[in-house]
Write a structure and sequence with these properties.
7 strands, alpha/beta
Length: 190
């Protein structure tokens, strides 16, 4: 079985490849000749995931799954949420996004947050969604060099390390994306 993972984020692709069973051949957007930006114009994380998966299926004809992820911070009324990748501007710079987040939370005692990933699978002319959530706190400073995005400032509940300090195996076990992928894999094993 072949499935396209609709992402241009090589870090996400690397993470997901370690979680997908061997009987599923995972194709990247590059593998299918898709080099354009896939539309993400919905106002929810779920809507963006569905939009991306549907776009690949309709444009390229491949069964596909796409994810959208957002960091939802309580003190910011759920922001950056669906705008996490562009929080500091259209340049989609992780460093800028993280710095903006830390500046906005400076002096705030409520640092609770959650990462939310929604995966939309478009297969056999049907769309299914799978949601993973990881609750935690935003640290006051960046720590760690692994991972990507907001990983250096997100410490999951029950752990003393940020995502950026964890090895990939541990992160995939507890992360929002790992949980959503686990539900996707269960779907294929039914």
């Amino acid at each position: 079985m072949q499935l396209v993972f609709a992402t241009n984020n090589l870090n996400k692709l690397k993470e997901v490849k370690t979680l997908i069973p061997d009987h599923i051949k995972l194709l990247s957007l590059e593998d299918i000749g898709c080099f354009e930006d896939i539309p993400e114009t919905q106002n929810t994380i779920e809507g963006n995931a569905i939009q991306k998966a549907t776009y690949i299926k309709e444009t390229y004809g491949y069964d596909c799954f796409a994810d959208d992820t957002g960091l939802e911070v309580n003190a910011l009324n759920g922001a950056p949420g669906v705008y996490s990748a562009r929080f500091a501007g259209e340049q989609r710079n992780s460093e800028d996004n993280t710095n903006k987040l830390l500046n906005l939370l400076e002096g705030n005692t409520d640092r609770t947050a959650q990462f939310k990933t929604v995966i939309a699978l478009t297969i056999n002319n049907e769309t299914h969604t799978f949601t993973g959530i990881c609750e935690g706190k935003i640290t006051k400073t960046k720590s760690g060099r692994k991972g990507f995005g907001y990983d250096p400032v997100f410490k999951p509940n029950g752990y003393k390390q940020t995502f950026a300090e964890m090895d990939l195996k541990l992160k995939n076990t507890i992360s929002h994306r790992g949980k959503a992928i686990s539900l996707l894999v269960k779907y294929f094993n039914l």
